[in-house]
Amino acid sequence: MSQAVVRTAALWLLGLMLAVAGAVVAINLVNNSLASPQQPVREYLDALQKGEGEKALGLLHATVPKSSPAMLDGEALKTAAALISDVKFGDAEDRGDNQVMVPIDYTIDGSQLHTEFLLQSSGTQWLFFHDWSIVPAALPVLDVTVVNSNQASLNGVPVNMPNGRNSFAVFYPGQYEASLAGQFFAAPATKAIVPGRDMPAAPLNLLTQATDGLKDAVSGKVKEFLDNCADQADKKQQLQPDCPFYHTTNNRVVDGTIDWSISEYPAVKIEPFGGRWVVAPLDGKARIKARQIDLFTGAVTELNAVHDFSFTTRLDIDGDTVKLTPQLSN
Hints:
This protein has 330 residues and is α+β, with helices and mostly antiparallel strands. The chain contains five helices and 20 strands. Strands 1, 2, 3, 4 and 5 form a five-stranded antiparallel β-sheet that branches. Helix 2 (38-49) runs antiparallel to helix 3 (53-60). It starts with a helix and ends with a strand. 24% of the residues are buried.
């Protein structure tokens, strides 16, 4: 065999060996990137941050428990995943039965967190490339309660709260924030992080309170009621008007001199009770001035007395309308 043929054969053999080596390297690169067990998890996290709930659910192969799906798509989902950052993927750990565990470390709103994803090998594609999928499981559920309200906001989305409570299927990892901001009733925002399917967050409980706007409206109506009551008592010259306050005496009060005024208006407190909002008993002080005659001595003196009073009132709210109905016992 001539040297030229030998040289040509050697070059072909070298080229074949280089091609095989290149193919092996390429296969390893693909299996360590696009066909790695980490890849489905990367795609899942990307779908969360884009608010693509349908894609995320498909990648997770998860079942949706009986609950509200309001957090599983769109802006609510994007908000849940918006603060996921500094994601670091760990090496896949063999768990037997063609399964591996892929750990990730990350932060949400400054909190250092860790989540593990279990993946199953379902064979190969094109003989060489591994095919991995996340092992199916049910989504976690986040419970939310709110005092005396059938509405709330979760991740910026209005949600229904029948009888003040609801449960929401949620993706993980993610952060969920509940709040209530109304004209008359509001609750401070409360947050929970759901790091994994087996690590559900504690329930979010919204402690609703009357707003300053409602307290001011009720205070205004209480003041209006008491002022009108005092004015009517003056016009009718009554010692015991149909009001929370009154005066009793054994003296004769000179007609035309009775003058009622409110010296201390009640402080308004609005509290939840029995599924309603109630106004706590209203305590105040009323002053009566008049000229009086002692029936035994005939002496004329000036009456100037302050009386404590207390009464209750029924609170009804219809849309933007606040109605008070005083409940008087005297």
